[in-house]
Amino acid sequence: MNNKNRTLGEVFEAAVDDFPDRLALKKGDVKYTYAQLKKEVIKLKNYLLKLGLEKGDKFAVFGENRPEWAIGYLAIVRAGLVVVPVDRMLSEAEILHILRNSEAKGVVASENCIDKIEDVKQELRDFKHIIPMDTIKDMEAGKEVPIKDINPDSLAVLIFTSGTTGTSKAVMLSHNNIICNLEGVDKIIEVTEKDTLVSIIPMHHTFECTAGFILPLRKGAAIYYPASLKDLVATMKEANVSCLIAVPLLFEKFLAAVYRKVAAASIPKRMMFNAISGIGSVFKFLRKPLFSKVRHEMGLGNLRLACAGGAALTEKVARGLKLFAIPIIQGYGLTETAPVIAVSPLEKTKIASVGIVLPGIELKIHEPEEDGIGEIIVRGPNIMLGYYKNQAATAEVIKDGWLYTGDLGYLDDDGYLYISGRKKSLIVTQSGKNIYPEELEEKLMKSQWVKEVLVVPRIDAKTKKESVCALIFPDYELLEEYSISSETTLKKEDVEAIFKDLVREVNAELPAYKKITQFEVREEEFPKTTLHKIKRHMFLERGIKV
Predict the structure, then answer these.
(1) What is the reported pLDDT for 23?
(2) pLDDT confidence bin for 217, thresholds 50/70/90
(3) For residue 356, which phi and psi values (nearest 5 degrees)?
(4) Which CATH number is associated with domain 427-539?
(5) Arithmetic mean of pLDDT, 265-269
């Protein structure tokens, strides 16, 4: 990167100079080359400054994934303003909370989101400007309005994140936080001007914003936006996608679709699939040609890199993807770290690991137990400036320059990082032993019958003894398919018997203090965040049956 391009509004300037006519952004019939993208960004930047907005003012961007979202974001930061990305799936009360607490002066919004803004606007004193995304193309083109130099260490992005804890804080990221993170990722994962990506994760999420939006534009790659999830496969085929960044749920759905096709196939094909599934690593070079048709049908024929992030990728899914020769890697990070801390090198992945720590970031395991597991703490140029107007919360997580992530994990001898779970979800037995719920969940998830699972502590109201309880949401579609193919009717007690046997099998591998002593079969999916993480905090109230 050119040293002068240290602000987010300028981060794609080198690509504009090198590839002015190359496709940058596309959704349906709307597309922008790099030269056109810069022109639109400058038009909107000039418009924002003519409104009388001043450096440091907050301005929101709100809508579905589309090129104009990217233009809005880049224009806001290029004008020296602070961009506030807003999740379009939030309720009006949550939107009001973000706009009020960020002190936003206005918003660049998709037309289908404007009604929500209008409904809360009267509650906001300083909120004055609503700019529909479709109006950007009609704005006056002209010479870029100059502004004074923007300090790369100044606040650039204000991100309200509740995650899975239920507490809303606003993370402050500087231009430098994000750009240093891009440079670190670039040293492990190569993205070039020849790559094409399909944007799936909502752009207000820092993972997608950094890795799926700013990074590709910095490198001259092309980004495609599907009109909806129904159009995803068609868009991947159109894009001839080479890099795919997605949450684990998408990869799980991909595998489920493949397995359904296999289940419906002829007996010889099913037998062949089952045989190939057992092929050892000696024959892994065969997998790519054997499953090329499957990949092409899913729009993944040109895929050279698939990255899962935003939530944990189970070993079951990772192994399934490798079976189909999908080059899957994992990443790990937090909004507070801009966001990437570690990522798997493509040429040397370890299925259970989230990869190696990015260059420029220091990582330590704080107060490790005998097994080497402790809290992950990090420091480096990607660490947030703090939580907006919340010094107490900032002081809780940043101590002597180290960010305490709240995640538990360990490093192996090769420097690969493994995540054991969240510090807040740790179960401590009466004898002082530590139980990591995620470890037990991973074992249960190996079963084809389990779609989702949470392991939580449960306190008996009478004895006050704490036990380990598994809350299981079955794969009801698979159970139904089994019922039809076997010509049997599965009753409630039959389903419970399946999971009783599963729990017994898992317990057989565990020491006494880790054994699951209760389980419940859920009829509904767990409530989740927009990144499809289960809202674990809702199920941790001691003594409450959930």
Answers:
(1) 98
(2) very high
(3) -105, 155
(4) 3.30.300.30
(5) 55
Q: If we measure between CA atoms, which residue out of 514, 471, 479 comes closest to residue 495?
A: 479
pLDDT tens per residue, range 159-197: 998 643 445 689 999 999 999 999 999 999 999 999 999
Model-level pTM?
A: 0.82
Res. 219: pLDDT tops 50: yes
Q: Is the confidence at residue 132, as pLDDT, over 80?
A: yes
Q: Pull the structure tokens for residue 541.
A: 């109230």
- Which contacts qualify for 474-481: CB closer than 8 Å, 24 or more apart? 474/449, 474/450, 474/498, 474/499, 474/521, 474/522, 475/448, 475/449, 475/450, 475/451, 476/451, 478/448, 478/449, 479/449, 481/260, 481/263
Judge contact between 464 and 439, C-beta under 8 A. Answer: no
Contact between 475 and 445 (Cβ < 8 Å)? no
* DSSP strand pairing (104-109 vs 129-132): parallel
Burial class for 521, CB neighbours closer than 10 Å (0-12, 13-18, 19+): middle
Residue 303 per-residue DSSP state: -
d(CA 461, CA 513): 20
Query: What Å distances lie between residue 441 and 59, 168, 230, 318, 348, CA to CA?
Result: 41, 27, 30, 15, 26
Q: How far is CA 17 from CA 11, 13, 23, 142, 150, in A?
A: 12, 6, 13, 19, 21
Q: Are 104 and 59 in contact (CB under 8 A)?
A: yes
Dihedral sign, CA of 81, 86, 88, 90?
A: negative
Strand segments (E) across 71-186:
82-86, 104-109, 129-132, 155-161, 169-174
8-150+189-244 domain in CATH 3.40.50.12780?
Answer: yes
Instruction: Mention every residue, 6+ apart, whose C-beta is less than 8 A from residue 209.
Output: 73, 85, 157, 203
Phi, psi of 304 (to 5 degrees): -115, -10
Within this chain, domains 8-150+189-244 and 427-539 share the same CATH topology: no
pLDDT at 263 over 80: no
Domain ranges of the chain: 8-150+189-244, 427-539
Contacts of 268 (CB under 8 A, 6+ apart): none
DSSP 8-state assignment for residue 106? E
Look-up of token digits 């074992």: 443
Q: Coil, strand or helix: which one is 154?
A: coil
Distance CA 398, CA 376 (A): 12
**Residue type for 196, please?**
T
